[in-house]
Amino acid sequence: MSQPANVWIIDDDRSIRWVLERALSQAGMLPRVFESGDTILMRLEHEQPDAIISDIRMPGVDGITLLASIVDAHPDIPVIIMTAHSDLESAVTSYQTGAFEYLPKPFDVDDAVALVKRAVAHSRERRATTEPQPDSAQRNTEIIGEAPAMQEVFRAIGRLSHSNITVLINGESGTGKELVAQALHNHSPRAGHPFIALNMAAIPKDLIESELFGHEKGAFTGAGAARQGRFEQANGGTLFLDEIGDMPADTQTRLLRVLADGEFYRVGGTTPIKVDVRIIAATHQDLEKLVLAGTFREDLFHRLNVIRVHLPKLAERREDIPRLMQHFLKRAARELAVEPKILRPDAEEYLTTLPWPGNVRQLENTCRWLTVMASGREIHVDDLPPELLQQAEAPATGLTWQDALKNWADQELKRGHKGILDTAVPEFEKIMIETALRHTGGRRRDASILLGWGRNTLTRKINELGLDHPEDDED
Ligand SMILES: Nc1ncnc2c1ncn2[C@@H]1O[C@H](COP(=O)(O)OP(=O)(O)OP(=O)(O)O)[C@@H](O)[C@H]1O
Where is the Response regulatory domain (predicted)? Predict the structure, then answer.
């Protein structure tokens, strides 16, 4: 082989990683090992190995899902799938999904090396370099918000529409920070130029610099071709840096320099590159606190903190929930080419009272779920996903009753108590009976139906548990 081949090994089993790494190194290749497939797709945007050899069953993303994504995004990289569970189905699925080869474990190391060599030769014949395209297309940014707190946000977007000023958006995850950043861009003098979004929390730390600033050919192992960074792609437009509080210290220093000088170097580069980029940053964290704790640079904070826009939690603008839901139900229906579902007033009222810790994004996902899962056209409370039905029971703490029960059982056992069902079961029945009786105004016959017991069973239980409940007239 001309240049040593870069081969990625993905397996949660350390001994397999070790054996393969050693064997491939001895065969003159440059192997790199990963314990899981979780960061592989992100890495592939930066560097492409000559071949990948991956286990099928791993914690996190499994081998077949990973394979499908690689085949989709990088069809030129051959993937060898290994599995300890050599069965027909895995083999067939691997091939159908586009695996180069299927390698059942245990395997002969020489066979594995020969197979990898074949894959590398194959990929080198086929490979054509493709540069990724910047995602500069303007997206539609309809922002729904009649609540006063959202009106404030709209006013800010309006006031800022003629400026190129740096903006810092604060708000919990899922409150619409990216949407507002996009709207700020669309209503700015830069609207005709790219809007590039980058989430610091979603990129492996060692890739952030090359993602932001690009890299030169050969800057690091596997950097086969030079690549533009997000700063270059955003030239003339806006760069949206989401979760800026997660930016590593070194990158903060580099970013500060770019903001001061308007120029930077690609990773491994020696020629300065000039850019004209507006920065909009966002975070769910309290940056002042991060500054005090010494994890966020104070000078960078002041550069970013020119204008602040605060996005309220969804729970602080409940009046917007019905319109948001209609909007998302319509959108989900369009995406799935079905008729939009209709929320009945009971469901709408119920949903408006929930805590929504995942904010607008959670609401949007719920609408997708309903569009796919609800059987009828109209949605009642009973059609809602079970986890939402449970949430109402402990909105204040976010604890479900099962969580509370689990905690109780833990405590009892830690105290050395035995036979804890003798305490828990009667307590459980007592709560169920008393609640059902409250719902029926004390009528036992109706309560027994609510509970799903026979009338006599209920009477017996009331007596056994020693509940202080008078017989009603019907009895
Ligand atoms: N007011 C709104 N009107 C319509 N859609 C909204 C609104 N707010 C948020 N969305 C939608 O909700 C989803 C989540 O919003 P977005 O990605 O902007 O949140 P975020 O605060 O940037 O989240 P994160 O910090 O987790 O990245 C998106 O699909 C967005 O289009």
Answer: 6-120
